[in-house]
Design a protein that fits this description.
Number of helices: 15
Helix content: 25-40%
Strand order of the largest sheet: 2-6-7-10-1-11-12-13-14
Number of domains: 3
Shape: elongated
Number of strands: 16
Strand content: 15-25%
Largest sheet: 9 strands, mixed
Distance between the termini: 78 Å
Length: 478
C-alpha cells in the first residue's frame, strides 16, 4: 500500500521586544536563573497584567506579511494547565478571537515544487519557563526567566506532505519575520520553536489518520529527520495491525527517534475562559493602515530589484537576500560605490565562508560594509591583487580592523614598478633554466611554474597580469 504523510505545524516565535508581554521585565536571552522575573510574570497573587503595545504591533505586522485577515476586535483567554514551568498554573493566550486568521504563504521547495500553505491562525500569548535537569544530582530545576516573554503562535492547516515542504515553509517564515524585525528567529536560543503534528493515511484517502505531536525540535535538520522517522513509525504500526495513539512525543537527537511524553490534550482539557484581567483590544483602521504602510521590502522584492537595478544573476540575489543582514550589508557596500557584482562575489565567497566557519549569523559579525568597499576599491585601483586582498580580509574580519593600516603595516601594497617585476622575472629565469627550456620546448605547464616563482619572489604583491605579460615578453626575446 502507498501511504501519504499529512503534516501541520505550530510555530512559536519569540518577539523582539525589549520587555515582556505583560510586565517590564527584560526579554534578554540568558542571565542567571530566575533573575529576569517579577511578581507579575510569575503570577503572584494580587498582580495585574498590562499589555505591551509593541507586542500587538508586531503580531499585526506579522499577520499582514503572512496575508492574514486581521481581527480588529480581539481578546485574550486563559489557558489552564499544571506544569512545573508555569508558576501561575495558567497561560494567557488567545483561543476564541485570535489576532490574525486565514493567511497564506507561497513556498518553493529545493526540488522546484510550488504550493501555498494556508495559515489557520496567528495568536499572541506568553511563554512559559524552562525546566533544567541536572544529572549529577538527579534533580530538575525551574528557571522562570522566560515566563512572560511575548510569543506569536502560527498555526497552519495540514497542508504539508513531506519534510522538504516543511523546511521550505520554515525558511520562508524565518526570512519574513527577520525582514519585519519582529524576531531574530534564533532556533538555538529558542526564539523559533516548531511543533510538528503528523499523521499518515492511504494515498488518495480524504480521511485524516490519528496524529501525534512532536516537540523538542531545535533545528531544521532535526525537524526533517523527526518527520521521516515518525512517518515510518506510524506506517509500520498500522501495517502490523496496531493503532497509532494520539499523544505528544519528544524527539531525541542522540537516538534519532521519537518517544512518548504524554497523551495529547484537546482544547477542552485546558478549560479556556476569557481572561478577566485584560479588556478586549480594538485596532482602529488608522492603526491598521499605518502598520501596513510600515511593512518593509521583503526578500522576493529585493531579489527582483537586484536583478533589475544591478544586473545580478538570480542565484546571487537568492544567496544575498537569504538573510536580511546580508542584504543590508550588500546595499551598504554598493552605496559606498562598490561594484554590485564584486560586492556580491565577496559576500557569497569570503563573507559567507567566514560566517559558516565561525557558526555566526550575518547580523552578529563585526566586519563592516565600509571595510569591504575599501578592499574592493584597492583591488580595482591596482593597489592590491585579489589573493592579497583575501588575506587582508581574513586578517581584519573578526575585529573589522583598519584595512589601509593593515596593508601599510605588512607592506602588502601591490608592486607596480615594471622594472622591479622584470628584475624578479630575470632572477627566476636564471634560477630555473630547465623550466625556461621546457617552455621553449612546448611544455605549457612550465609557464605557470615561472609565474608562481615570480609571484613568490615578489611576496604575492605583484599584479598577476603584469607578471604574465613580462614573462611572455622576456621569453619571446630569448
Amino acid at each position: 500500500m502507498t501511504w501519504e504523510t499529512v503534516i501541520g505545524l505550530e510555530t512559536h516565535v519569540e518577539l523582539a521586544t525589549k520587555t515582556k508581554i505583560f510586565c517590564s521585565c527584560t526579554t534578554e536571552f540568558g542571565g542567571a536563573p530566575n533573575t529576569h522575573c517579577c511578581p507579575v510574570c510569575t503570577g503572584m497573587p494580587g498582580t495585574l497584567p498590562v499589555l505591551n503595545k509593541r507586542v500587538l504591533e508586531f503580531a499585526v505586522k506579522a499577520g499582514l506579511a503572512l496575508n492574514c485577515s486581521i481581527t480588529r476586535r480581539c481578546k485574550f483567554d486563559r489557558k489552564n494547565y499544571f506544569y512545573p514551568d508555569l508558576p501561575k498554573a495558567y497561560q494567557i493566550s488567545q483561543l476564541y478571537l485570535p489576532i490574525c486568521r486565514d493567511g497564506a504563504v507561497p513556498i518553493r521547495t529545493e526540488a522546484g515544487v510550488e504550493k501555498t500553505i494556508r495559515i489557520h491562525e496567528l495568536h499572541m500569548e506568553e511563554d512559559a519557563g524552562k525546566l533544567v535537569h541536572d544529572p549529577w544530582i538527579d534533580q530538575t530545576r525551574a528557571d522562570y526567566n522566560r515566563c512572560g516573554v511575548p510569543l506569536i503562535e502560527i498555526v497552519t492547516e495540514p497542508d504539508f506532505r513531506c519534510a522538504d515542504e516543511v523546511i521550505a515553509y520554515l525558511e520562508k517564515l524565518r526570512s519574513t519575520l527577520q525582514y519585519l524585525g519582529v524576531s531574530d528567529c534564533k532556533m538555538q536560543e529558542g526564539s523559533l520553536r516548531c511543533d510538528v503534528n503528523l499523521s499518515v493515511r492511504p494515498a488518495g484517502s480524504t480521511e485524516f489518520g490519528t496524529r501525534t505531536e512532536m516537540k523538542n525540535l531545535n533545528s531544521f535538520k532535526a525537524i526533517a529527520r523527526a518527520i521521516q522517522y515518525e512517518a515510518r513509525r506510524q506506517i509500520e504500526l498500522i501495517e502490523e495491525g496496531k493503532r497509532v495513539i494520539q499523544e505528544t512525543r519528544r524527539w531525541d537527537e542522540n537516538k534519532d527517534a521519537t518517544f512518548a511524553m504524554r497523551s495529547k490534550e484537546n482544547a477542552q482539557d485546558y478549560r479556556y475562559f476569557p481572561e478577566p484581567d485584560i479588556p478586549p483590544l480594538e485596532i482602529s483602521q488608522e492603526e491598521l493602515d499605518r502598520y501596513r504602510a510600515e511593512q518593509p521590502e521583503m526578500a522576493e522584492a529585493k531579489m527582483a530589484r537586484y536583478q533589475t537595478d544591478y544586473g545580478l544573476p538570480a542565484y546571487d540575489t537568492q544567496m544575498i537576500t537569504a538573510q536580511k543582514a546580508l542584504a543590508d550589508f550588500f546595499e551598504a557596500a554598493v552605496a559606498l560605490d562598490s561594484d554590485p557584482k564584486q560586492a556580491s562575489n565577496w559576500i557569497m565567497g569570503q563573507v559567507m565562508g567566514q560566517l559558516s566557519a565561525r557558526g555566526m549569523e550575518a547580523k552578529d559579525m563585526a566586519f563592516s560594509p565600509a571595510s569591504l568597499a575599501r578592499l574592493i576599491a584597492l583591488v580595482k585601483d591596482g593597489r592590491l591583487n585579489r589573493n592579497t586582498a583575501v588575506k587582508v580580509f581574513e586578517a581584519v574580519f573578526e575585529t573589522d580592523g583598519d584595512v589601509d593600516a593593515y596593508v601599510r603595516e605588512h607592506s602588502l601594497e601591490q608592486v607596480s614598478d615594471a622594472g622591479l617585476v622584470q628584475k624578479a622575472v630575470e632572477e627566476v629565469f636564471a634560477a630555473n633554466p630547465k623550466s625556461v627550456a621546457d617552455y621553449q620546448a612546448g611544455k605549457q605547464k612550465a609557464f605557470g611554474f615561472l609565474v608562481g616563482q615570480t609571484m613568490a619572489r615578489l611576496k604575492g604583491r605583484a599584479s598577476p597580469q603584469v607578471v604574465n605579460e613580462t614573462i611572455k615578453a622576456l621569453l619571446e626575446q630569448l
